[in-house]
Amino acid sequence: MNLVIQSLDPIADTHLKPLTALARAHDKQSERADAGRVLRLSGADPLQRPDIDAYCGTHRLDYAFIDPASRLSDFGLVAMDMDSTLITIECIDEIADFCGLKAEVAAITEASMRGEIKDFNESLTRRVALLKGLDASALERVYEERLRLSPGAEIMLTGAKAAGLKTLLVSGGFTFFTEKLKARLGLDFTRANTLEIIDGKLTGKVTGEIVNADVKARTLRETCAQLGIDPQRSIAMGDGSNDLKMMAEAGLSVAFRAKPVVREAAGLALNFVGLDGLLRLF
Known about the structure:
alpha/beta, elongated, 7-stranded mixed sheet, 4-stranded antiparallel sheet, Alpha-Beta Plaits, 12 helices
């Protein structure tokens, strides 16, 4: 396999020898790219992952074992979670801030994403109920004032589209934000929860089927079927436990600045570099 090492800064030469040894890679078969921020070692042994993981974690490096023959264009779809993946915030936490309940809601969100609350539907229902009576204008304020794309998001999407991939944003968050991002970023497909709004106020309820882990996985499968591709030709990116089933369906699963349970299950993790790190794997 190729071992691809990435960093926000140029990778020091002093890392080459220990990484080559730890990976049992071919001596003198390495190449650098992206102004020295990417190091590719050939002939690496994937069974050395625990040692590589420990070394890279210590030195704030991202790593991935990648088939040398693999190309981004081999895939047909990139599916992304929204909150804390495509964007930097958890929208529901920021909405709750306008009710003075951010800390309470954020604690439930964190426990849910770490996998400590097993029932996502219950978790979402509890959090949304706390928003009852809030003026719907708060949603627009969150979008305009607080929502930011994750580093490298637009570069990653541009590169994926150039390679022929379709894009899917599938979220346990809300359609108010996914639809705005769809228009802004030219995404092909979106799926999320709909907040009920009556007379300009949030009712504290969502309408329709809640987008939980099972629905995320099903949405990925259905989108692949619509595109006429096998789910193994999809890439799934996420950060929380409700992304795990979707990521398990995909041919390549990417944990992005994710909770420990997700990093452990994913094919690879991007802990330090941006979403555009996906492009540099190939």
